[in-house]
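JOB MANIFEST
job_type = single_chain_structure
chain_count = 1
residues = 205
[input]
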Amino acid sequence: MNKNALELYFICGSSNTDENLLTVVEKALDAGVTMFQLREKGSRALEGAELMEAASKIKELCNSYEVPFIIDDDYTLAEEIGADGVHIGQDDIEPQNLPPYFDDKIIGLSVGNAEELASSNLEKVSYIGTGPVYATLSKADAGKAIKPKGLADMRRLIGDMPMVAIGGITPDNYMACLENGADGICIISAIANAPDINAAVNRFL
């Protein structure tokens, strides 16, 4: 994959914003985010036909802005709507066991530390998401913050493989992520909850 797509990777779902999800996504795309992941988790997560409809509309939006559209965890949904890829965690399906549809798609894998890296099969993985770099409330199961040093350690282990930083990233600390080996940053709340999404995105760009 083109690692430039990871520059400003926006992740959002219905539980991450009080606004209409499609409105938030369109504002973020228009402001310049370079990749989008639909992550439907939490008490207000869409399901069934509603989820399928929303994902299909977001796919159309991403296509119109020529931004890769990734689905979190739900590889069946990703295949059904023709998403550009899927992002999976350590407790999800093994990357090599994904359906053939994903052979030429983007596959992201969460890898938080050296132990997880050692147990991960990266043969089909396009990029890894590493973190949480800083403490975060956006993911209840995020784990302990690894700090920028954790990114630097991971970069030494993975060489040139694309890597994106995630977790508690703000306009005040994102440069430390890039300076310690990340090719880009994942943002959830700093964009999803921003009163002015365009201004929020531009602070990272």
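[summary]
The chain has a mean pLDDT of 95.
The CA atoms of residues 112 and 130 lie 5 Å apart.
exit_status = 0
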